[in-house]
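Q: What changes when iron/sulfur cluster is included in the input?
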Amino acid sequence: MKRQVRRIQAMRVKYLYINTIGCQMNVYDSEKIAKALKILNYEITPFVEKADLIIVNTCSIREKAEQKAFSFLGRLAGLKRKKPDLIIGVGGCVAQQEGAKILERVPYIDLVFGTNAISRLHGIIKMVAAKKCRLVDVEMTEEIEELTFDPEKNGDRKATGYVTIMQGCDNYCTYCVVPFVRGKELSRNPSKIISEIEDLVASGVREVTLLGQNVNSYGQKEGHLRFSELLVRVNEIEGLLRIRFTTSHPKDLSEDLMRAFKDIDKLCNHIHLPVQSGSNNVLKMMNRKYTRKLYLEKVEKLRNICPDIAITSDMIAGFPGETDAEFEKSLDLIKKVEFDGLYAFMYSDRPNAAAARLPKKVSENKKKERLQRILDLQNGFTTKKNKALEGSNQLILVEGFSKKQGKLNRHNNPQDIQWTGRTSTNKIVNFFQSDDSSYNENIVGQLVNVRIVEAFSHSLWGKPNSVEPLSNGLRGEESHVA
Ligand code: 5AD
Ligand code: SF4
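A: The predicted holo structure follows.
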């Protein structure tokens, strides 16, 4: 009887709540964490109050992201008082950066684990639970630690997935904390990448985004395939419909990779090519290793090779020492390129990053004002690009219900379902299910031909054209119908 009780206790499902802050790399890492902790019987819960284990996967790219993590941790104090057995862990980039200091700062945290510690996490948690101790593991590894999991059943029918192809970064842009918190650049073995994508596809995923800080230099150190060759291999995976990747460093964007957008049929028509500044002097201070002219030339070449390609970028406002005239150069570059979308940020000092030691910091007010000018200028181009799609037919990979869906479908009527997906150029399209009965089903993961009816600044509204359903659940090959 005693033994039976013990076995039942050992089998008890425990609940894991993960708060992921930051980039796609962290989203991918959180998925790995969830999979790794299944061994210990942890299941994901969306309810923080229900959790036996809470993990905050942190980001330290800007100070704001770091503050977000600490303010969430602050809100957990009451919960920990109510549930003393609750385990709270901090992972990701802030954990790597701050290590044991986090335990001092937040006394009710049980563990801190760095960006290279996910493979050791289940052991750490077992130890914390058994010994009621507090642990820190921020050891950096010299090799990529591959984790193997049983292929997942894709319960939510996710259409898209991330796959990390490399970790770390060797570029040391002077504003950036990544080389310090993610370590040296290391590329994964191509066979591991391919088999991970094959598993995702077997579980229903139809689009993968390959992740790395600088995908253009994939495999160069290790002598693996070149990135464009890896894309060819990924393109051959049956059942996969779309490939995306991020991020490309402009200095390493080769003609080889530009041609991939034309030659590799599953590769989506979108590149994220962070420029950061339009001023040569600021680019030099940032250690970006390209000039404004070189960036513009690469954009022109890319558009010559692939005229439909959507280009998005990142820009920093108020880098230390940035003058009014230098900032104007950034605005001018935005006008010249006409990006499809732009992520702009106020410069923020980061620990260890060289720019933190630069004098002549730009005031907060000026940074705010410059940021707003970038956003206002770019908004016009984003809307213009979206408007140009009105009346066109676009192939959308359906990702799920749109954000508004919850409010809309009051009568449970399939025609009332508002779906969301993306064009090959990465623009969000929302649409209602058509009157055509073939759509009265779960269409997540299917390609649907949609006529764009109205464009807004951040999304498009469409109406599906009728498409013959295919027996394998996919709707035809992707093509651009004008
Ligand atoms: N301050 C502001 N923005 C930053 N980024 C990276 N580091 C900083 C910083 N210290 C931005 C860059 C990068 C994006 C991911 O975040 O634009 O491309
Ligand atoms: Fe940071 Fe530069 Fe590396 Fe990108 S390339 S992660 S901005 S150091």
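Observations recorded in class: The chain is about 35% helix and 20% strand.
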